Amino acid sequence: MHAHFVLAHPEPQSFNAHLVRSGTEALSAAGWTASVSDLYAMGFDPCERAEFYPDRVAPARFDVQSEQRHAAQTGTLPQAVMDEIAQLERADLVVLQYPMWWHLPPAMLKGWFDRVFAYGEVYTSQLRFENGRFRGKRAMLSVTVGTSPATYAFDGRSGDIDLMLWPVNFSLAYPGFDVLAPFVAYGVEAGLRYSDPAAIDARLVAIVAAFRAALPQAATRAIVPFNKMADWGADGRIVPSAPVYSPFIRRKQALDLE
């Protein structure tokens, strides 16, 4: 089994980087192989640009999907993108490791999605969800947040963590990954500033131990459910017989909040 980590944190000594190092060690001890894309250390450019496509299908106007598809068809996608796709293709498990910044992943990781999940190469209208390129592979988010589990509960001040992570999980499901329940490290950033040092050490040690234990058990970790292509009608809306897994895709326009 092979795991690939995508690390999106600018500091090599960060707790996020430490989790990746600890995770690769734990998997190696369990007989896995592992690789890492440290996006900041690599100098990965997260901004999709016309300059990446010298053989343009439409030089007068930069249309990202058209150029990605043309590059996929002609074998001219940027090497940095093809390298990342090759890493995903090789992996049985992909782990995205990042801190929650302003309720979202760092811009670096969003740009990685924009460029690496290239139209025509990673997905098409026919090559997605249960028919996706990466079907049979697993992917998991590993996220650090600043405050406690209570603040990220359904009624917490930071927002429901499952809802906040849904768009990123959905992006993984789109090209066919089986999306595993996320690993969330609570009380990392804020805790380092405001907590008692002994409490910080104990919390971080426990997080690392839980992460190391979870990774080799990826085959039995819960899967986040998403609808399949058959669950949508010709108009793109969910059909009456399909299951509903999330408020993001539902049958009722207005939600009963109380």
List the defining traits of the structure above.
258 residues; alpha/beta; Rossmann fold; 2 domains; 6-stranded parallel sheet; globular
Helical percentage = 25-40%
Radius of gyration computed on alpha carbons: 19 Å
The CATH superfamily of the largest domain is known as Flavodoxin domain
- Alpha-beta classification: alpha/beta
Shape: globular
**Broad CATH class of the largest domain:** Alpha Beta
How far the N terminus sits from the C terminus, by CA atoms, comes to: 46 Å
In total, the number of domains comes to 2
Query: At the third CATH level, what is the topology name of the largest domain?
Result: Rossmann fold
The total count of helices amounts to 8
Q: What order do the helices and strands follow? A: EHEHHHEHEHEEHH
Main sheet specs: 6 strands, parallel
Extended strand count: 6
Q: Which architecture name of the largest domain does CATH use?
A: 3-Layer(aba) Sandwich
Please state the average pLDDT score: 94
Low-confidence stretches: none
Q: What is the percentage of strand-forming residues? A: 5-15%
